[in-house]
Sequence to fold (224 residues):
Amino acid sequence: MTLAEKAYQSLRKDIVEGRFQPESPLRLAELSDRYGMGFSPLREALNRLQSERLVTAESLRGFRVSRQSLAEFEDALQSRLLIETEALTLSIARGDDNWAASVVAALYALKLQTGRAAGDVDALKMRHHAFHRALLSACGSDWLLEFFERLYAATERYRIPALTAAGPQKRDIDEEHAEIANAALARDPGMAAALLRAHYLRTATAIRASMAPVRPFVPSIDSV
Fold:
């Protein structure tokens, strides 16, 4: 891995996981101290992240973490639903035994990690990503897979803080993943796409709730 790639991976992970607040400045000197590398690979990484809309650049003001808003989330969500349901449909049509085996293996690895009481959170995130990518991996389109990666990161910025704030989940997410995989392996694109869509929309409900403005209490005549 080159220094530029290492800088990109480190910065991208920290932005997606909320270690930098939205719209906070990304000063090269501070990033150099944080990651222990020079300005050149960091600048290359920031330019790459700008192309992915995770970072913005302002004339004379340098780079900043992209802002977050409910409208931006909804746009990313709807785009992700379009891209992934299409890619999943193509994967089901084109996937061979190796694709099916990769889906089974990714699901198994993810379930193992979710079942560990003191599990590695980073490992869980990686296995979650690997499962969703495995479902789409036989679509035959590098563009669809690239858009999946970008939109996954764009929505992950909202998903991680929302689920952390929500605490323990009432959903059986392992079962949701298994249902999606089973429908895909049964070569039922309509059911698989519907289950994938429902899976994301349940998460979207939690994200919308976490972003809803807190309304100040205004006492009514009956309450005084």
